[in-house]
Structure formats: C-alpha cells, structure tokens
Amino acid sequence: MRAIFTSVVGAWISTQLLLSVPCLAFPVQDHCPNHAPFAQTTNGTVCGIDLPGFNQAAFFGIPYAQPPVGDLRLRHAIPYNHTYSAYPAIAQPPSCPGYAGFDVGIGPLSEDCLYLNIVRPSMQENVSHGALPVLVWIYGGGFDAGGIADPRYNMSYIVQQAAAMHKPILGVSINYRVGGWGFLSSREVLAAGTANIGLFDQRRALEWIQENIGTFGGDPAQVTIWGESAGAFSVGYHLVGFEGKHANLFRGAILESGSMLGSALQDSETITQPGGFQEMYDNVTMTVGCADAADTLACLRHVSYESLFDAFAPQVYTPVIDRTFLTRRPSESLARGLVADVAVLVGANTDEGTAAFWGPRGTLNTSADVAAYIKTLNGGGLDHQQVDELLKLYPDDPAKGCPYGTGEERFASQGWMYKRGAAIAGDIFVHAGRRRVAEFFAARQTGNPTYSYRFDQAPWNGVEELITTVAPVYSTHYVELIFVFNNPSPNLSNSIGPYASYHDLSTLMSRSWVSFVHDLNPNHYGLGKQVHWPAYTAARPQNIVFRAEDNQGGVFVEQDTYRTEQLAWWNTHWSYLRS
Questions:
Q1: Count H helices, E strands: the chain?
Q2: For a tag on the chain, would you pick the N or C end, based on fewer CB atoms within 10 A?
Q3: How far is the C-alpha of 563 from the C-alpha of 79, rounded, in Å?
Q4: Beta sheet of 343-349, edge-to-edge order
Q5: Mind telling me which Gene3D superfamilies this protein's record contains (predicted)?
Q6: How far apart are the first and last CA of the chain?
C-alpha cells in the first residue's frame, strides 16, 4: 500500500508541475505531435497529453464556448465557432474571475475562461470496454469562486480507481462564470434575458459533451453530473431547470452537501427590495461610471476588466428566478413534479453547520440572539410564530446541538448558544434539502434508483483549512470531498491524512461513486465484503454512513429518521424562505 501511495503522489506532483502553465501560452498548431492522444471535435482536432503515471490521456483547456469578452461579456454562452487543425489541450486553463479566500492554487484568472478538461483511460482500455460512462464535475464555491485548475479537483485519481475496478469512466470538469460575472441580476438583466449566466455556462458545457464526447471514447447517453456545495445546488437547479426538461443531457446526478433547496432565490419582485440584487447592480454601475448611460448593461460590457472586477468584489451574487432556466421556486417544482427523471445519489455531512460562512459564530449568546439570527435567514421570510416554533424545535440544549455527539460542551468561545445556531444552519442549508430530494426521487418509482449517505468523519488532524478554519470542525462542510476524489497528496489543504483507515475509506467512497456512474448502483466497487448500500425507498428510507474503520466501527446503514420534526418543518416552509 505504501509503495503504491508513494508512486501515486509522485505522479501527482509531476502532473501538477506539467500543468501549471496557462493553456493560452501554447499556439494552435497544424498537427498533433507524434504519438500524442487526439480527438476530433466539431471544431477540429484536439491534441492532448499522456499521463503515464496513471495510464491515462488528458485534454486540458478545451474551449466549449466563445470567449465571453467584449460584447459577449455578461451574456449567455454561445457555441465556440472557430476551427482549428490541432488545438493544444495540454495545460490547465485560466479560472473565471472569483473572490473567495479559499480559491487556493487555481492559477491565473481571466474573463476568457470557458474551458473544460477531459481525463480518460488509455485508448486500449477504451477499446476493450466500448464507449465509457462520463462523470462531469461542477465545482462549488458559493457561486463566487472556483476553477477546474484547483489541484483538489484532479480527476485522474477517481478515473484511475474506475480502471482498477474494471469499470472505466471518463472524467470531465467544467469552468463556469461566478460572482457578478456569472450571476449579476437586476431589472435590466432580467429584461435582457441574461440572468443566471453561470448556470447557462454549465448547460452549454453539457451540450458540448453531447456533441463531442463520443470521439474521446465517452458515451453521451451515460452522463452523470456531480457537484458539491454550490456545485450541488447547480446540479439541483439542472434537475428542476427548464421545467425538468433536461434534454437527456445526463442520466444521473450526484449532490454532495447541497440541493435545489435551502438557498433563497430572488425574482423580479424581490430583486428590487432593500438589499436586493437591484441595489447591488445600481452600486456597480455607479462605481464604474455607467449609472447615467442610456443602456447601463451595455456600458458594463465595455468598462475595463480591472474596474469591473473591483466593483463586483464586495457583493455576493447567486442564481435567481429568471422564468427561463428557473421558472419557479424549486420547492414548487418538486410539488408539481417538474423535475428531471434520473438516478440520484445525494448526501450531507453530519456537522454541516460548523462551516464558518453559515453565520452563527461569535454572535449567539441568548435566545433573543438566536431568534434574531433565524429572522435573517434567506432574507427574513419568517414571522414571529414561525420563529417561536423553531426555537422550540432547536432548544437551548447543547447535547442536541451541532457539532453532534459532543454532549454538554458548548464551545462557548464561539457563543454560548453557538451549537444551537449551527444546528439550525446545517439543517436549513443542507440537511433538510437532502432529505426532501431523497424522499421525492424515491417516491417516483420510475425505475431510476435513489441513494443517500451521511458522511461522519472528521479530518484526520481535526483541522479544516478553508471552510471552517476555526474549531469546532468535526465532519463539517466540504471535508468529504477529498475522500471522493481519492487524491492522496499530503500537500493539499484538507488532505486525507496519514492513516491507512482514512485511505481505505477514500477508496471505498471513490469506488462507490464510480460504481454509481457506471451502473447506477454504488455497490459494485470490487473490494470484497463491505456494507451494502441500500437504495433509498419510500418504504425503507435509509442512509449509508461513512466513517473510517477505527471510528466507532466504520461504515454502517441507518434509518433516515434523524431530526424528523426539525427537517420536516423546513420542508413544509420553503415558500416562506424563497427556496
């Protein structure tokens, strides 16, 4: 095991050094180098690189849309319309402009960022198995950051696990616009039909995959979309987008720590309320000198990149109800059954609420503080009676608070009632949506299976370096992701760690995800006797719980009954919460 670990880490280091140069540094050529992997796209031949340490070929920085610059800035992506004889897809593309502090190692930023990466097994592996299922990664980052150049999202390891278990897949990761570049909204934007740019970027990339993935060895009929956090919300929005008409762009969906529920969505009415996106838009136009222009949106397309980057920086932008992609609130789409009919794998981490950005740190010391915090959730849609109901459902009892299983410890340095607020935050933003999605898809009984999990493993050293940063951490938001990507590098923030049991858990999770992508069943992971992951059904709603073997006995199956009353409350009140 240690020899394999050492060789894989060596391969990772050499791969990252090779791919650290922006793709735009390489000119388009007349032909691919001898023996280089290549594929024919609708725009021409794409030249890739061999990754001998993984027995893979990789294609980095393939354009899937016209560069969104100049007059194409702040518009929906359109198909790439240039042709090339031999496009050098050999280095990581620039990342879209983003702002969050956890954007670590994603390389240079550029408006010209609509690229995707493809990692595939060797062609010999492809030929022996025919067209391969395709796993498409959509990164998170609060719709404010992220990029496929992030080394934590290196797909070579999960593709390598797939080959080792004789269920090869192709891995695709896609850049999309974030922040104001991807989610600017206002009356002007809605009138122009250019809202939710980032979601349309993702949709364009999925269309490109349908048009081209076959020449890379992939099967366009076997695509699974996969996201975490804002990436999982994105996946959720694709499930309810266009009234659930997903145009057969995917057959499976994986949602980690997010869904289409939990986040408030502004619309044409609420957008103009105090603190709404209209106010933010007006601030941006004023800052860059476009406020008096006859067409402020057109003006924004032609101010300098640096000016607009700085103007967007103080604001946080998220998707809206645009009446095209998102025609109504997702809770209403679920109620009406206007949801794509696909297989689903959905899950959450036990202690989601300890993530620092949910809000309750250092501010909640009394019940009045907790009530005030509840009133701010999702723009303040709850009345006094509803707030009182939640105070009863989440009492001042630290033994019932988050992080769970920590007894009477209050972590009082974060606020006397911190655990109470963290429990509320984790449930509204992640856990309630996870249960509603699992229950909805299980109840459909259309033949597409549903699987649900709970991740219950703290980082090996009790430290989370990007999302939570301050104790308590426990099994917080984001910590499961390194296990699924199966990236063994000890140099990454939030690494798997040095313990064999943690790497065994990572192998199991990574292979379970592959098995779902390949077979729509996560149990064919080829590791011998392990806990069976049961399908989630209306009659038997169950989660698999992922723990390392030396953590209370490791993986097990539970009935999905935790916090029944609390999660049911959220799932019957989404209309008040604009979700």
A1: 18, 14
A2: N
A3: 46
A4: 49-51, 56-63, 115-121, 170-174, 132-138, 218-228, 252-256, 343-349, 450-455, 542-546, 556-559
A5: alpha/beta hydrolase
A6: 46
- The answer to whether residues 63 and 118 touch, using CB atoms and an 8 Å cutoff, is no
Selected catalytic residue, list 229, 263, 475, 579: 229
CA–CA dist 147, 33 (Å, integer): 28
| Helix 367-376 × helix 384-393 angle, to 10° | 120
Count of C-beta atoms within a 10 Å radius of residue 90: 21
Inter-residue contact 57 to 108 (CB < 8 Å): no
What is the rounded distance in angstroms from the CA atom of residue 422 to the CA atom of residue 476? 11
Catalytic residue of the set 125, 352, 464, 480: 352
Contacts of 529 (CB under 8 A, 6+ apart): none
Q: Confirm if 168 and 44 have CB atoms less than 8 A apart.
A: no
For residues 135 and 514, what is the distance between their CA atoms, to the nearest angstrom? Answer: 8
In 91-224, which ranges are continuous DSSP H helix? 123-129, 156-164, 179-183, 187-192, 197-212
Q: State pTM to two decimals.
A: 0.94
Peptide bond just before 93 cis, omega within 30 deg: no
Contact yes or no for 323/265 (Cβ under 8 A): no
Q: Are strands 170-174 and 115-121 parallel, antiparallel or unpaired?
A: antiparallel
Tokens 């076997």 belong to residue: 222
Record the tokens describing residue 105, joined without a space.
Answer: 């190692």
SS3 31: coil
The model's pLDDT over 331-382, given as tens digits with 9 standing for 90+, comes to 999 999 999 999 999 999 999 999 988 878 888 999 999 999 999 999 888 9
Other CB atoms within 10 Å distance of the CB of residue 495: 18
Per the residue annotation, which of 238, 246, 431, 477 is the catalytic one?
477
The amino acid at residue 568 is A
Other residues' Cβ atoms within 10 Å of the Cβ of residue 50: 14
For residue 80, CA distances in Å to 13, 29, 66, 125 come to: 32, 18, 4, 30
- Could you tell me if residue 535 is left (phi over 0), alpha (psi between -120 and 50 degrees) or otherwise beta? beta
Which residue bears the tokens 């979601």?
A: 199
The residue written with tokens 């993530």 in the block is 355
Edge-to-edge, what's the strand order for the sheet holding 84-88? 38-41, 44-47, 84-88
Handedness of CA 156, 161, 164, 167 (dihedral sign): negative
**Cα distance between residue 331 and residue 262, in whole Å:** 10
CA distance 529 to 266: 48
CA-CA-CA-CA dihedral for 209, 214, 219, 225, to nearest 10: -20
Reported as a single tens digit per residue, the pLDDT across 394-417 is 999 999 999 999 999 999 999 999
Which stretch of 111-125, 194-208, 383-397 has the lowest confidence by average pLDDT?
111-125
Token match 């990772």: residue?
A: 12
352 is catalytic: yes
Token pair of 45, please?
């031949």
Alpha-carbon gap, residue 79 to 60, rounded angstroms: 18
Say which DSSP state 537 is in: -
Distance CA 334, CA 466 (A): 33
3-state SS string over 382-407? CCHHHHHHHHHHCCCCHHHCCCCCCC
